[in-house]
Design a protein that fits this description.
The protein is mainly beta and 134 residues long. It has one domain: Metal Binding Protein, Guanine Nucleotide Exchange Factor, Chain A (Beta Complex). It contains 2 helices and 10 strands; from the N terminus they run E-E-E-H-E-E-E-E-E-E-E-H.
């Protein structure tokens, strides 16, 4: 069976990427660092083994946001594109909305719930609300 290939890009298209195979996880992160880096209430990440990911483009830049963490982004448009952390050695985490078909990568969990904004919903709460809508 051939590997699933997914593609994506930054906002301006200067950096493109391709992943092969299935992600290890897809999760919403509510940590303050992710919120500040994305200017959003949470970031949905797809985590892959680093050898499953290939970036194409010369404009990738990195920023050490905290000790042991590097966040990569397009140096032209600033789109966040990758997260590498010592805690998840050998993995590359990619924001789901950077993929060309983000609708195919639904999150299954939430992380750092203790740091979420008080008005932000958790995935489990959303699932429970939808179950009562029927």
């Amino acid at each position: 069976m051939p590997d699933t290939i997914r593609t994506g890009r930054c906002l301006c298209g200067a950096v493109r990427f391709e992943t092969r195979g299935e992600p290890r996880f897809i999760s919403n992160c509510h940590c303050e660092s992710c919120r500040r880096a994305s200017s959003a209430p949470s970031v949905t990440w797809a985590g892959f083994k680093s050898e499953q990911v290939n970036f194409i483009g010369e404009t990738m830049r990195g920023y050490a946001s905290t000790p042991g963490v590097t966040r990569s982004f397009c140096g032209v448009c600033g789109s966040p594109l990758a997260f590498h952390g010592d805690r998840w050695s050998g993995e590359t985490h990619i924001p789901v909305c950077a993929f060309d078909a983000p609708e195919t990568l639904a999150p299954a969990s939430d992380h750092f719930e203790n740091e979420k904004l008080p008005w932000a919903a958790l995935l489990g709460a959303h699932k429970a609300e939808n179950a009562t809508d029927a």
